[in-house]
Amino acid sequence: MMTNESVAASALPAHLAPNRFRIYLEDLDMPVDIGFHDFEVGTPQRLRVTVEIWVEERFFPSNDRVAEAWNYDLLRSAILNLAEGRRYNLQETFAREVYALVAARPGVTAIRVTTSKPDIYPDCQGVGVEIASF
User: Fold this and answer.
1) Helix (H, G, I), strand (E, B) or coil at 107
2) Which position among 15, 41, 99, 106 has the lowest Cβ density within 10 Å, counted as fewest Cβ atoms?
């Protein structure tokens, strides 16, 4: 008897077999003590963080077992802990710390970290930085 998982896998044509596996956390919105201007120091600002993580196939769940999944709660909590752990002058510094945190995980093949301050200018959606391994 075939399970739903094996039916789905066996129905895939070879040319459509997945070859990239991505996990992401999009627009985590949090207060961060960030900025180098006098009026910014000690006044937390909203910062949005998006993390895209490409992983080796063996680190991407191939079944419906929780034990194989990436724990989004841990990823989110770790980023929030970085934000709460110190003050930052630059988004670049914060983005590098998030990047290093993710890069340390097993199976990671590529990363993109984007940070944005959405409340800086009234005429744009945000100002930010991006770091990527590709």
Assistant:
1) coil
2) 15
Half-sphere exposure of 68 (CA within 13 A, CB side): 11
64-82 pLDDT, tens digit each: 888 878 889 999 999 999 9
| Sheet with 127-132, side-by-side order of all strands | 22-32, 45-55, 108-117, 127-132
31 is written with which tokens? Answer: 């207060």
The span from the CA of 80 to the CA of 130, in Å, is 18
The single residue listed with the structure tokens 């709460």 is 84
> What class, spelled out in words, does domain 18-132 have in CATH?
alpha beta
Q: Which of 17, 3, 107 is nearest to 65 (CA)?
A: 3
Amino acid at residue number 48: R
